[in-house]
């Protein structure tokens, strides 16, 4: 099953973009804000519909809980999660939890284009 999305969380989006460009030689493209979640992103297309998402804090009001996609949990920039779109969501969730993944949840994004994926 191909990975749809890899998430690289960082404490500063511009720094995270620079880190990824230095590591890969590819310049990320600014994406957008995650309204109400206190983050914004930049993206690199990996081919076949897969992306690397660099996500960092935004100047929005801080959400009541933790920021989206592990941003508050990092001391240094790192991969924090990934997402796939399986044919069998229920089966994937069961197998992932059996193998010790701490959480598996369904996520949808809709901002003109409807995207759905299953992060772990």
Keywords:
120 residues; seven-stranded mixed β-sheet; alpha+beta; 7 strands; 2,3-Dihydroxybiphenyl 1,2-Dioxygenase, domain 1; disordered C terminus
Helical residues, percent: 10-25%
Oligomer status: single chain
Would you list the SSEs in sequence order as H and E?
EHEEEEHEE
Number-wise, the strands total 7
Per CATH, the superfamily is 2,3-Dihydroxybiphenyl 1,2-Dioxygenase, domain 1
Second rung of CATH, namely the architecture: Roll
Major beta sheet, specifics?
7 strands, mixed
Shape verdict: globular
Strand content: 35-45%
Q: Mean of residue pLDDT?
A: 82
CATH class annotation: Alpha Beta
Structural class: alpha+beta
Low-confidence stretches: 111-120
Radius of gyration: 14 Å
End-to-end separation in angstroms reads 14 Å
Q: Helix segment count?
A: 2
Q: Estimate nothing, just give the exact number of structural domains.
A: 1
CATH topology title: 2,3-Dihydroxybiphenyl 1,2-Dioxygenase, domain 1
Cross-sheet strand order for the largest sheet: 2-3-4-1-5-7-6
Descriptive overview:
The protein is α+β, with helices and mostly antiparallel strands and 120 residues long. The protein has one domain: Roll (2,3-Dihydroxybiphenyl 1,2-Dioxygenase, domain 1). It is 18% helix and 38% strand. The protein is built from 2 helices and 7 strands. The protein has helices spanning 13-24, 89-98; strands at residues 5-9, 29-34, 39-47, 50-57, 78-84, 107-110, 114-119. The protein has a 7-stranded mixed sheet with strand order 2-3-4-1-5-7-6, covered by helices on one side. The radius of gyration is 14 Å and the shape is globular. The two termini are 14 Å apart.
